[in-house]
Amino acid sequence: MAASIPTKSSRTAAQSQVPVEHPEISFGEALNQGLRQAMELSDSVVVLGQLVDYGPGVFGSTTGLVERFGPARVRDFPVSESAMTATAIGAAVVGLRPVLVHHRLDFMLYSMDAIVNWMALWRFKSNAQSTLPVVIRAIVGRGWGQGPQHSKSLHAWFAHVPGIKVAMPATAFDAKGLLLESIFGQDPVIIVEHRSLFSLKGGVPEVPYRVRFGRAAVRRTGEDLTVVAAGAMVPFALRVADRLAALGVEAEVIDLRTISPLDTEAVCASVEKTGRLCVMDPAWQSFGVAAEIVASVAERSTRALRARPVRICHPDSHTPMSSALETQYYPDETAVVERLRLLATRG
Amino acid sequence: MSALTHAAILKTGRYRGVRIDAGEVETARSLHRFMLRLRKCEEALAREYHPADEMRCPVHFCVGQEAVPAALSLLLNDDDYLFCHHRSHGYYLAKSAPMEALFAELYGKTTGANGGLAGSQDISYPARNFYSGAILAGATAISTGAALGLQLKGTQQIAVAGFGESATDEGIFWETVNYAAVAKLPVVFVCENNNYSVFSPQLKRQALDNVSARVATFGIRSTAVFGNDAMEVHRVLGNEIALARAGAGPAFVEAYTYRWSGHYGPESDDLVGYREPSEIEAWKRNCPISLLEEAMRVRDLIKPGERESLVLEAQSAIDHCFRFAKSSPFPDAPDWKALNLSADSPLADKFLVEAELSKFDAHQEVRQAKGY
Q: What ipTM was assigned to the predicted interfaces of this complex?
């Protein structure tokens, strides 16, 4: 992992970067642009998934690829998630760089054997002689009654398994950069993409660029409180931070960008400064990323915490369909603002 | 051939169909040499397994099931891919991976095929395009992926999956056959039907015992063969492999065979009472090596003393492998992270540039997808 662990100097540089102007495109368009550029850069890149070769193109992310690259490289796959993942493994063994797409992560669970028993340990059990550059894009739904089989974000499960990297892009910029980094990396990657982010726009460079794993982004600086957020919780955290600022509380917002490897160094550096920690993870609370972050801070920055950490997650319950209950289920911005205002003033 | 089943084979008794056609003399000799070497290798490993307790990993011996690996050893090119299940030693040797690295792997030594990380049931030899794994049908689907890659590259290479009939209990096998058929992939599935999933016979697990008949309905070529007739196995697989290589799409071959050993380890597990002694004896009378030797003797293809010298040759290689494995060092504590994930991304370095982080407006409205 040497390549993706930043040196002290590169971290300082990353944190002090001044945001620059790039063409504004949506998260979905950024994924499409990333895939298109990857396929142009290398014939070994292929896309497999249900309906990837139809106009809607998995929420726009694969639209137009079949016209440009043909059906041999943009392959509609039977509803055989298990075989699809194993197929990608075999294709990677002979030198391809497959990108799998699941409209909903929930369907991908048929392929847990391929992921956990084969893909994750391929490099390990070959004594690092054989590697699998397989990318799995898994989309998580929310709202409009997606219910318990269309909304699970199981990134913590995957991050628990050695040998797989897990990305959770929150911005269009990261969606493209992490996708390209994954496709041209050496190891299996699961990219958990939240459906609610697909229409959000952001500046995206037109060139093929990389976003490295294990490097969080400081999206907002602040002295009073550290808010660590992943995926769909990043825009939420930034909105909460803006409302806190109006109340005189300056929150530092850290976007994890990747869950595995996890940039605990960036989190701890911030907590050392603020003394207060809130983790926002768009998943069930128990045994999740938020718990891992709190544990890491407790281990590494034990004395820095001046107040009890706060986890903003989903209840330990499956997702309801009814819109009235969805409102209850997902974190409420106003309630979180109040909770964090209290966190900032305690201790 | 579709009437071929385990019950039918037992009813027939001693098999008398081994043929050595004109032009097949060298094939017969090579199959014989391979099977004899594999048998001696497995017997030696089984003998040594417990007295010393130095091979501390599950080992699934393939005594009695030598014919399929022997045929593949003659039919596969170095650049073809072979994926197999946990009963891996025959397949490993079929891809000409070195026997000493197999032994050292079982001993958990640095000189093992995988430095002692994989053991018998997960062994691979990437330099020879050989891979195995213990979760039964996984390798069938992976071989199909390899075939997809080879098809896209437009090469003459093929992928072969070797597995048992128990793998066809698992759903992914049928998903795989379907996809191989619809995409016309250059893959050959070789099912060694030995009738048992550990103790459980096929007809306790499946309503029908002829897997090849069911596979045929998926739209691929499918054949059943008496799997202890190495000559016939070689002919059938040779034909299917040639067709797959020529772009005629996938094939399934069901080779009826039998494992003499217990499911794993050197001991018999017959005390469980899952199979009749008479059944084992009947299959031993249909030993793939004896059947071929008999046919070879009829044609005077084995000279006096030749078998003994082949055994000595194998034994000498085996002795060397034991010495090699035992004298090799155990691995030191590894860098666990480096073992599981790559340190470098040369292709990303080549193709991708660094970019300055850009602005993101968190206040823009989320457009709720109404529906899916």
A: 0.96
